[in-house]
Queue: 2 jobs
Job 1
Amino acid sequence: MESNPSSSGGCGGGSCGCHGAPNDGQGDSTRRNLLKAAGVTLGAAAFAKALAPLATWSRENLSVDDFLQKHYRELDKEQLAQVLKRIEEDTKANYGADVTVKDHRPQLQVKFGYALNLSICIGCRRCAEACHHENNHDRSSGNSYIRVLEMQKGSLDIEHANAHYDHPVPHPDKFYMPVQCQQCDNPPCVHVCPVEATWKEADGIVVVDYNWCIGCRYCEAACPYHARRFNWTKPQIPKEEINPNQSYLSNRIRPQGVMEKCTFCLHRTREGRMPACLEACPTGARVFGNLLDPDSEIRKVIDNKRVFVLKEELGTRPSFFYFFDE
Amino acid sequence: MASASRLGKWTFFGVIGVIAAWFVGALVFPLFQSDKVRPGREFAPRPVNNEPHPVSIRLPDSKPWIDSGKKDAKGHPVMVSCATCHDTRDPDFATNDASKLDEFHQGLKYAHGSQTCLSCHNANDYNTFKKADGQPLEFSQSMQLCAQCHGPQYRDYQNGSHGGMTGHWDLKQGPRERNHCTDCHDPHHPAYPQVMPVFPPKPVIGEAILAPHGSPHH
């Protein structure tokens, strides 16, 4: 090791400039301090300048706390409480509305299932409207997690369905199939997310951490049910129309540039309540409940009706079932 | 100079080692990370031993009354009991269409199979219904009347897969309110009426409205 001292790198060789003038005196030391200070200042300025486009590219009013926030699943209770408080304050500042943002966790021994009776659905789209208001969607784009498809009787070809029908319903030759997130047990949208901003929770709901999402829209492309939506703009909602009962993983007002999706209204259903689309349905075509409870309404449907799932051949294993009465 | 050289070498390898350790750590660390949320946050409590909350059914507000066509002093319609007229008139068991009547029930739209008025209404007591076995039935119990013929619908209703509802899926956490047959079906023409759909979807950026094959969009 010591056989060839001259070959070692760094200052060890003694030829380096920093050892050249040990006795330069006080003047040089202050100049060095000055240079150091200038360097630090310039460096900090350059760093801020380099980060500046990030703020404009991401979203407006992105605070440092926002930017440095950890992934939802890595927050402990205190950190989460701070995050929820910050979101409430931001909503007040940006929208003027007093809202409550809670953290609804899954309940033990609950797995949600949804069934829809295609013989009863009349295609009135009240479910889509209820979703729009319940989940604080952008008013101008008329967004909703539910798309009601008008289908030819005798066919299940979704690609040839029409979502833009505009005539009295139900048309005698048609049936109507509302499609929303199927809460797959093998969710392609979750598999493709490059940053793990979306995942499946213990009660079967596929959720998005809107603060972790980078808006790449891979999940939107991966979903075979066209169930995911992208926030192209900052959602605009009049203050008095904002639903104040919000949850971090569901209907809080989403930032611009992130993905969102149906969460089976987890801010309601994890409190034992029905989803908003079910309550809005005037015909009772929708059945919701706990798949793990053998006496639940949803289990009675699955046990006794001839239910099917959409695009079964893809192996996504949806928690959303359709059936006909006759 | 030998000791300085050794120091430099150790520094060099030290730095390399730290970088390598950091690199390996960054690769290995995620493998040991749990996929679950932080401890204490996995699940929400759910009441287990609670008595189930009730399921209530909205009672029909129909009463055995009919508008007499007259107004009282305040302009409210004067309602009269069915028995006011029907007690003194002979029942016509063949009537199955309001247009055959000379007075009252004018304009009543009727389309309920081949039933006649007195298939359901009780000729012996017009303030009640008549079940298939001839027994009278209070107006408030009309679901039993419907269930006599519409068995599959009644079965589905009891199983929670027919008829709208609001409230809780989990009765341990709250009550539920259910619609009555007559909330959605007019008993005299029970087919669900056609309605105009609400809330038409708007095209979003990058999406064109395409008419389905074979049916021109307008």
Note: Chain B touches chain A through 60 residues (CB under 8 Å).
Job 2
Amino acid sequence: MTSIPAGEAGVSGPIPPRAAVHGKHPIPSAGPYPMGLMALLATVSMLFAAFTASMIVRRGGSDWVRITLPSVVWINTVLLAGSTVAVEMARAAVRRDASSRSVRWLALGTVLGVLFLVGQVQAWVAWAAQGVFLPTSPHASFFYMLTAIHGAHVIGGLGAMLWTLRRSALGAYRSGAHLGLTHMAIFWHFMGAIWVYLLVLLSIL
Amino acid sequence: MSEKRQTTEAIALAVLFLGLMVFTVVGFGMRTWQPPAASKHASELDGMIRYLLITTGVVFVLGHVVLVAFLVRYGRGKKAPSPATSARSEKLWSILPVVFMALISEVGVLFIGLPVWDEIYGDVPENAVTVEVTARQFEWIARYPGPDGAFGRVEPELVDGQRNPLGLDPADGTGADDLVMRNQLHLPVDRAALLLLRSHDVLHSFSVAAFRVKQDIVPGMSISTMFTPNLPGTYEIGCAELCGLGHYRMRGRVIVHTESDFSAWLRDQTEGTR
Amino acid sequence: MSHDYPPQGFIRKYVFSTDHKVIGIQYILTAFVMGLVAVGLSVLIRLQVAWPAHQWPLLEALLPNAYESGVLKPEFYLSMVTMHGTIMVFFVISLALVSGFGNLIIPLQIGARDMAYPFLNMLSYWTIVPASLIMLSSFLVEGGAAAGGWTSYPPLSALPQALSGSGMGQTLWLLAMALFIVSFTMGSLNFLTTILNLRAVGMSMMRLPMTVWTLLVSSILGVLAFPPLTAAAIMLLLDRHGGTSFFLPEGLVVGGVVLDYAGGTPLLFQHLFWFLGHPEVYVLVLPALGIAFDVVATFGRRPVFGYRTTVVSLLVVAGLSMIVWGHHMFTSGMNPYVGEYFSIMTVLITLPFAVIGLNLIASLWRAEIRFSTAMLFALGLISALGTGGLGGLYLGTAAADIYFHDSYFVVGHFHFMIGVVTGFGIFAGVYYWFPKMFGRHMNETLGRVHFWLTTGPVFVAFISMHYLGLAGALRRLYDPTSYASFQPLQGWNVWISFELFIAVGAQLIFLGNFAWSMFAGREAEKNPWQGASLEWTTASPPPHGNWDEMPIVHRGPYEYRTNGSTEGYVPQNAPVRPTLADSATSPAGEMLDRSGP
């Protein structure tokens, strides 16, 4: 197997199909932080940056009223933080080759992630009960829109997490070979960071 | 490919590029395109355009002459191989266009363009005539404040296309003497005109080519534009921002009077409304 | 790698393929289909502009919804203007030049077996298909296709009450654009990763052909500039259907009815739109320049002049392009001091572009030009870059732009830059790489007919549009003769229309040549043009996986006629002769030093 690309030299077990496609082809800088994922994070960052700029501009309007956020968002923040910790615990378990524990941590992370989404919907319900809807005020518009867009990204992250959960349950990850898990974790932490950022933004503007 | 055909193609291309170059230079060089300059800043703005015509014209002609010369020189027959140019000389050669274009573009912007820009967006002189111009699909409505010098209050709810296009509030006394005109704007010569631009519905753009004036009108924003007409006559107002199906016919007229004619016109109109 | 078989069966091979070459061709063909629609629209637009009140009973029979008693309806005119721009920018030029050639050429020129994410690549193409269909279907809905201009400025684009095309048509427009952005972002991520991570052994960044460099810069711009448009599209959708007021202010009165919006600001949309819109211009123009560099080097038998200065210029252009969007808004009502900043920064872009232009011309110095059709189009591109690029100075100077804004000068300018420059880039690329696409040549005689019938007319037509702009003629007018001051100019409109009809006819020759050559063109060998870059070291067309034995790169991509070799060029994968004396005396020694990492 001299032809395994340098960047995936650590991979043992069955060779993933991509390596097969590239054959003798070297992947010079495919480390734990591959270009594709970094570029994805960059483009997502630009999306939220554009919304931030819009919010700052729109805040200049005469009708800007800040409405107190539903208290459930603070519980949601804890849930998402818990999920992030669980994913990190799963990675730590994989690094020690404790694969059954990593499966349990990932399952916990998934459940907490789903609960976060349920909680976000609960936040919408709470505001709707108060009579605060999407068009009620620009601040409300931004809250509904940003939570929905963040939620859509979280759903994507959950999809990735379910996929790693399945791979993990099949025993595909070892201490030296769990790039997929690492990438998912990076994206998930990023989603957590974005949420905290949005929460701060929606609380101070 | 035969050498003869190769030569023919090189010559044909050279003729094509030279022909296009001449067409461009002659066309741009014609002074008859722009309508007569009828405002104070118009001739300065034309000066900026003339500066660009000359400087970019030089670059344009130089570039094409070199391109054509290379085509004719190196487009025919075998040439002896030659070493690649050194990185050093390539770097030196890149300094030339950078310095040249930096001079052309930034000198133009900083020393000719921005002074004109500042004049257009500059301070309003004391004696300026203030007119409110409201754009709506698809007409221009000019309003003069009348003898009291104040515009009456308007309310969106009172807008009525035919009778009260601006939505003047009859409860507000200052509006009683306001002078409202459709698609017509009367201005005195040699006095600054300050136009307060408003829109009822979508984006419009107030544009008078002879004055070299163009200003978008954004609903919800109070935007003004200022210019000093210096040539009596009648000019066309156009809408320069796509505003709907009638965009193409959203025109008006601006009539520039001598100072005395303007006073007389204003007096006639004001007496008419009483 | 025993389990990497080429895909079997028609569907896996040509429809749902993950092979970058097939996907590249799919993109290019899709762009041609969309291009036919957009060109058809331009013909109808030019008929209307040249003969505004004329009756066209035959056209009414063909398009009963668009004409009334033989005369074009203004709502359909505005829909056509909007859709011509949208389709050309996003569904023709972006697809053919960036997605098409990007997929086809990047792996072949960097020495990779495929894209970094082949599946994502397939997904990206199959997102464009519904996007295209939705965009086209908007002509069929009530109220017609979007009509608020390709810029879709609110409030016009947000209020169906203000414009019939702002109903269902605008919703479909936004939906199609959202899908386009998703697809284009996937493509950009793929290009970026592929170029940075999958280069062959020895293929350092400074040995990449210019096409790859320009596509890399385009991808970076794509990843960073498209999200703000996504944000704008989402907010516009919510304003239209969710009752929000992101872009809509209070006190709007449309058709005598006061609308229930408050506090929004229409200018915000313009800022978000042009934050994408301006970099998008370079996303389109730069790959065309990259192709021109490659074609000029191959057929000029001469290394590209100023490889390094060009790369630096590209990066400077990319950086500047992100901070100058406001020059589209000089007259928009934004703060005049901000306008000054944008003007000062904007004209700086001419500096790197002047370097690129000089390098393109200087690449012909001491050349041995071979006039192929690809080369003719590349040369035409150089001339167009000069004409269009210098016109940009008039618009970038804030004061002069007051006169030129929204006039035909702008129309002429951007048709030069993202019509002629990019179009000629596509043509040069198609004639140049056709052997790699289908293993055949396009007919060179028909190619020359195509070139000669295209170049004169389009240049003359778009230069003439500048003249209309100098005369102050406004754009997007359904009937330009409704202005007394534009009536004397009407002869120019007729003249421009005739020129463009000739050019449109020439494009039919091109499409015919393309279709015929695909199946019956002269068969091409591996390296028909004696090119030095990697794509010419494999079969035409290349097999699945591109190379049996992966190439190893030893030198830069442009070693033409520099070291007296008998073949006149040295392919990138040719090993360097090891003897010291050789490299010291050979003129190529210098070249080798330069092209090292």
Note: Helices of chain A lie at 17-22, 35-59, 72-95, 99-129, 138-169, 179-204.
